[in-house]
Amino acid sequence: MTKSYSLRDLIRADNFIDGQWVPAASGKRFPVTDPATGKVITEVADSGPDDARAATDAAARAFPGWRDTLPKDRATVLRRWYALILEHTDSLARLISLEQGKPLAEGRGEVMYGASYVAWFADEATRIYGDVIPQQQRGKRMTAIKEPVGIVAAITPWNFPLAMIARKIAPALAAGCTVVGKPAEDTPLTALALVLLAHEAGVPAGVLNLISASRDNAVGSVKAWLDDGRVRKITFTGSTPVGKYLAQESAGTLKKLSLELGGNAPFIVFEDADLEAAVTGLMAAKFRNGGQTCVSPNRVYVQAPVYEKFADLLATRVAALKVAPATDPNALIGPMINARAVEKIESHVKDAIDHGARVLTGGKRLPELGKNYYAPTVLADATPNMRLSCEETFGPVVPLFRFDDEAQATHAANDTPFGLATYFYSQDLRRIERIARLLEAGLVGINEGVLSSEAAPFGGVKESGYGREGSKYGLDDYLSIKYLCQGNLE
Predict the structure, then answer these.
(1) Neighbour tally for 325: CB within 10 Å
(2) In its keyword annotation, does this UniProt entry include Amino-acid biosynthesis (predicted)?
(3) Could you tell me which residues come within 8 angstroms of residue 411 by beta carbon, excluding any fewer than 6 positions away?
């Protein structure tokens, strides 16, 4: 009989290592604050290299037993974890909203989204197939089998504190790997709660270990994993500069890497598009989590003949968005994660205005709500010389660029070192085929603004990283292929 946890019960302040809740070796702690109010929720363990190594020691001890656990038994544990996540949807959603700031409805949506990966990989655990290679020489049998890579270090961002860690831990456990992890310093509580439920579901001690660390100590903690040859894989979601650092620093032990990095997503609206559908798709893609997503459209290109009409439709919809704390049941946009995020948004908008952009709606802070709130914004007459054309704003700001023809649109869309997500709207089937092939991205939304699914491969190209999460392909990044050659059979 599993225990039912309240929101208060789910809040844990210590590291989870080898099946135990333990403070940081140094005894240090750091505060986790509510971005809506600035109030401290609790203080959590501020871990260093010693804590990271202790987590690795536990994962190393647990690896042989978990690796040799039958796939169907690993799947059973994952299914129990999935059921517990669903059972605690409301408490988990409120915890997400409390430490991350997103509206409660979005928090519930994130719980369901993260849980879907646990369910998916519970099933995939029993489908790790190898191959029998057709005989090449008499007396020899050649086969290829897949084995877990070993210890996986999972490092996750603050914008989806449950979903991002669930879609890393679930495939790792399904494959037979053990895990050490560090959530973002802004939002460690949801990840710690998720680990609590995993332990309750029967994940053995040492198989899943999680430490928290402040911004000052995070590098030292992660460096301990980068230098440790026992850690065979790093999976990271976050900024491109940090991803490059992880790639460089892990080269000494040639770890396997999955990097889901920054984006600068274009959203293209052709003149033959259904404009109402395009606006609806853009609203869904852009304003989820207040624009704080890696696949959020950052550059919206609209063909000249429909530019003004589209701008008017969009501005009307955006102006109607209610900005409020997650405690307001009518909130559609919550606070940004912290003051640094608001400062970046404000600087991008100011730069755009200085370079000739027109504010159609928004364009200002909302101090009456708190220091971390910014009004949903639409900017017309955006141009390539503005910072927001080449830097990811990560906030509720939509800049509208004008274009004349397909060649101009696709060139502008691809003219970035990033290639995570891209979107376009058109009702011309031939154009759809042409544009889909030309766009340089790992994810392409065609007349659709919501791309993510546990059944689909998620990941980018160019400086948006490599590796895929979700889908049948997502398990491969946690497996290595072993070739077996058996001779003298005749």
Answers:
(1) 19
(2) no
(3) none
Residues contacting 39, CB < 8 A, separation 6+: 33
Contact in structure between 74 and 125 (CB atoms under 8 Å): yes
Token pair of 248, please? 């460089």
pLDDT for 206-220, tens place per residue? 999 999 999 999 999
- Residues 106, 124, 185, 260: which is the catalytic one? 260
Query: Residues with Cβ < 8 Å from 346, sequence gap 6 or more?
Result: 365, 374
**For 391-443, how does the pLDDT look when each residue is reduced to its tens digit (9 = 90+)?**
999 999 999 999 999 999 999 999 999 999 999 999 999 999 999 999 999 99
Retrieve residue 2's tokens.
Answer: 């599993």
Residues 6+ apart with CB under 8 A from 307: 400, 402
Q: Note the pLDDT tens digit of each residue in 20-48.
A: 999 999 999 999 999 999 999 999 999 99
d(CA 301, CA 263): 16
Whether 3 shows a pLDDT value over 90: the answer reads: no
Model confidence pLDDT, tens digit, residues 211-262: 999 999 999 999 999 999 999 999 999 999 999 999 999 999 999 999 999 9
Q: Which two tokens stand for residue 118?
A: 């646990």
Structure tokens at 29: 């702690």
CB 44, CB 14: distance < 8 Å:
yes
- Does the active-site annotation cover 147? no
